[in-house]
Amino acid sequence: MKLIAPDYYPRFHCIADKCRHSCCVGWEIDVDDESLQTYRALPGPLGDELRAVIDTDGETAHFRLAEDERCPFLIEQGLCRLILAEGEGILCQICRDHPRFRNEFSHCTEIGLGLCCEAAARLILSQETPMSLITLSDDGGGEAPDEDEACLLTLRAQLLGLLEDESWSAEERLQNILDLCGTSLPEKTYAQWADVYRALERLDGAWDAALDTLAFPEKPLDTSWDRPFLNLAAYFLFRHLPAALYDGEPHARAAFAVLSTRIIRRLFAAAPAQDLDTLTELARLYSSEIEYSEENTEALVELCR
Fold it and tell me: Is the alpha carbon torsion for 265, 233, 244, 139 positive or negative?
């Protein structure tokens, strides 16, 4: 089975204490069964402390967060006490994987980086060349892709190719994706789109403030910003189109990728400053509010049908 990733994937690394939005704050941290057994058998004071803060009463075991929603093992400097004491091997699966996601096919597994991590978002947005896919490993196993998988991967390759057709402007390339899929987005003003997003589940007050700016006058963006937004669209297509294998809605998921790119671009155009820090934060905020809520993602995909 092959393990395939975007070409930028090997350059990712956690920025730990330099992160402004730690994944150890504000998120429920589930403990997988294998890690739970490890923690139950771990001797000494650290093992005792682990067992004392794991809640096993619900459907899935998880850490009890502190009152400020911090992981009990996150120290003031923003570092993980478990890693400092035992190394990364002691982490539960969700902590080892984040911000990675996987798309499973018969012949390969794709692995990528989620935008909700600011280090991953900056890496994705700052790429100066179009995304390409590389093979990280290949054990020779795996079946051939079935017909549905082959058709979906061919469509995705066509859509990614449209993003790099320099005979069109960046916005025209997004429209070409919709045209190739024979679909369109609902006709709404950006103020109306803000209402659509406000009706979804929301986590962070900063997201409400960002949505307010969708009604602001738009400032023109220099074409130097085309590359980051093309990178953004490629990310959404790479991550979300494979889910059409389960719902049979590749065109709706392509439209969701276009919608997401346009919304983030509009938020950026209305922001007080146009720089990579601002764009990284808006992409991270969008991802944490939308992509990391299955209900929110599916609601927008449904609207794009």
Answer: negative
Judging by DSSP bridges, how do beta strands 133-138 and 62-63 pair with one another? unpaired
Cα dist from 27 to 63, 91, 95, 133, 160, whole Å: 10, 15, 11, 30, 32
Matching residue, tokens 């609601």 = 299
Are 61 and 31 in contact by the 8 Å Cβ rule? The answer is yes
CA distances to 112, 150, 303 from 122, rounded to whole Å, are 14, 31, 29
pLDDT single digits (tens) 60-94: 899 999 878 889 998 878 889 899 998 888 999 88
Distance between CA atoms of 67 and 59, rounded to whole angstroms?
Answer: 22
Q: Where are the beta strands (DSSP E) in 156-234?
A: none
Q: How far apart are CA 97 and CA 176, in angstroms?
A: 34
pTM score, whole prediction: 0.91
Is the Cβ–Cβ distance between 206 and 283 less than 8 Å?
no
Here the tokens at position 216 are: 């602001």
What gap in Å lies between CA 15 and CA 19, rounded to an integer?
6
Tokens of 190: 């950006």
- 142, pLDDT greater than 80: no
CB distance 112 to 100 below 8 Å: yes
Cβ contacts of residue 296 below 8 Å, gap of 6+?
200, 201, 289, 290
The DSSP H or E segment spanning 209 is: helix 205-212
**CA nearest neighbour of 171 among 107, 236, 225:** 225
